[in-house]
Design goal:
single chain; alpha+beta; GIY-YIG endonuclease; 3-stranded antiparallel sheet; 3 helices; 3 strands; 46% helix
């Protein structure tokens, strides 16, 4: 069974956040922090603040999209603030 992850990263360098979706969270984290040459490379190191597991890709993609827009954006901000508070970062 294939699992899909929706995740929220936090940049320890400048406080930015990134929301993504993948089927291999460990590999994707390595890509964000060490290997990848995408838009996230300039904000390393990234901390994995939050992730959610889904059993199908379509549902995961919808959740990722939701967290990036409208009401979901505010929900994401609350998740980030709660996680940072729990970690003692903010």
């Amino acid at each position: 069974m294939q699992l899909y992850f929706v995740y929220i990263l936090y940049s320890l360098k400048n406080g930015r956040n990134y929301t993504g979706m993948t089927s291999n969270l460990i590999e994707r984290m390595c890509s964000h922090n060490y290997l990848g040459k995408d838009s996230t490379q300039y904000h390393r190191p990234w901390l994995l603040l939050h992730y959610e597991v889904y059993f199908d890709k379509v549902t995961a993609m919808r959740r990722e999209k939701y967290l990036k827009r409208g009401r979901g954006f505010y929900e994401k901000r609350q998740i980030i603030e709660r996680c940072l508070k729990e970690l003692g970062i903010q």
